[in-house]
What we know:
The structure holds 3 protein chains of 3 kinds.
Chain A lengths: L4 E4 L2 E5 L6 H18 L3 E5 L8 H16 L3 E5 L3 H10 L7 E3 L2 H12 L8
Helix pairs in contact in A: 1-2
Chain B lengths: L18 H16 L1 H14 L8 H21 L3 H14 L6 H23 L3 H45 L3 E4 L2 E7 L4 H18 L3 E8 L5 H16 L3 E5 L3 H9 L8 E3 L2 H12 L19
Parallel strand pairs in B: 2-3, 3-4, 4-5
Antiparallel strand pairs in B: 1-2
Helix pairs in contact in B: 1-3, 1-6, 2-3, 2-5, 3-4, 4-6, 5-6, 7-8
Chain C lengths: L4 E5 L2 H18 L3 H21 L3 E10 L2 E10 L7 H4 L13 H8 L2 E7 L3 E9 L2
Helix pairs in contact in C: 1-2, 2-4
Amino acid sequence: MEVPILKQGDYLIASIQSALSDADLLNLRDELADRVGRFRSRGVIVDVTPIDVMDSFATRTMRSIAHMLKLRGAETVIVGIQPEVAFAMVQLGLTLEDVATALDLEEGLAYLNDRMTGGSSSVR
Amino acid sequence: MASKKDPQTADTVVPVLQEATLGLLRELVAHLRQNRTQLREEWVRRITEAQLLIAMTKEEIFAEATSVFDNYVELLETGSIEALQAHARNLSERIIPRGVETQEVVGIVLLLRDVLARSLFKKYQSDFALLNSVLDAYEPAANRIANTVSVGFVQERERIIRQQQEAIRELSTPVLQVRERLLILPIIGVIDPQRSRQITEQLLRGIRANRAKVVVIDITGVPTIDSQVANHLVQTVEASRLMGATVIVTGLSSEIAQTLVTIGVDLGKMKTVGDLQGGIEESERILGYKVIDVSEAPVQKSPGVM
Amino acid sequence: MYDNQSVPIKSDRDIVIARQHGRTYASKIGFTGGDLTLIATAISELARNIVEYAKQGEIVLSSIQQGGQAGICIVARDEGPGIVDIVQAMEDGYSSRRSLGLGLPGTKRIVDEFEIVSNSGKGTTVTVKKWLR
């Protein structure tokens, strides 16, 4: 299951379409790392709206995506974590502490725009 | 208990009856019908004497006793427990709101069993062997009836309790949208683990439904929480963050503050403000709202996000 | 009561399949919303444990009853190398390989009952239960 990655200006948007296997997640990570360099992207949004389970592996991969992309010069924001998924993650002990999150695509874009213009507001 | 079988699953009182037993049952049903008035009165007298059903008037007791008696005798005759089950449910529905207790219900059915047994003793006392056979036919049926009525009552009571708990729970945690993207959850009363789970579910769904960015949880009305609920509160804050919303907790009592410190809550993860007003002001700041006095405002315009 | 359902686990694809089966199975028993997600997440962790440490095994789902309460039982079984130190494996943050180390202890937190039996060289069986509230 390949994840479509859209380029929009300085940003990349990866919209996950359905449940992903571990291999799919690792592919996504490598694809993003590659494209951020190629397109000199400054921000990346990973939309996980359809994901119904975020287990330790998926969470760890999301975190490593954010860290890798940071090292390659882009900010990452994870959007669309569902209410039940969010609570299950927290109970498992997975809180994605150092990764930015937002409600949906729109909020994710607003977050990135805000960061790019120097963070005039304190919204995270 | 006369039978180990679940009264809910079996629908006959005595599954396999010998022809002789059937004959005896018919005979004793006829006897009970004949003496209906007297037996019923005796039963009501014993109920009053034992000070059962004190929440009901004498007339009410008599009316209920009559219909239970008739159902009872009918069941002995037909062996079908369904009518009695329905009757027991019905009766329970009527008397539970009156404050009738489980032991009273069990008490009155056992009394009826005794009253009828005594009348059988009296009738058959001259023939001991016959009396024995009559009791052999009567006892399992009577015990089964006592069982059915009691279980029916308890189940009805449990159903009502569940219903009430559900209603209270729904009433107890409103999720209010006070401004666009700002939710307030005023929590009042004791939070047990079940309620805290429910609060979390409502809050997380509310964040998504209202596209909330800031949530103020006001716990001024919560006197104390245990460490399990405190941990749950922290988890709720973290889960909200994963959904992109900031949670501000307001109105922590000193006792709750102590619990949070004792369980070692990472205070970096939880934003707290003294009172609800302060919490709302902080939210407005985060959301970019600015409240201005209209009389001082130079140009009339509605406040909006920066 | 529903028939037991076994899902073979041979690759990381099967992890996704197992948790989807688990979700469907649990909803038949009567689980809803957040609980379904917790059950699917627990299955995901258990199945991944099999793939990572034993290469293959199976997840068996069954419906259970106790004192009028219904629930789901999930058994994850493999014939892999086994876990040498279970106490250590159940500590938060412990990982003998590349896992975050939250797999088993995390799973224990989201279910009602958790039992692990492992014999070095003979494999591991993890049994978890979750009851309908």
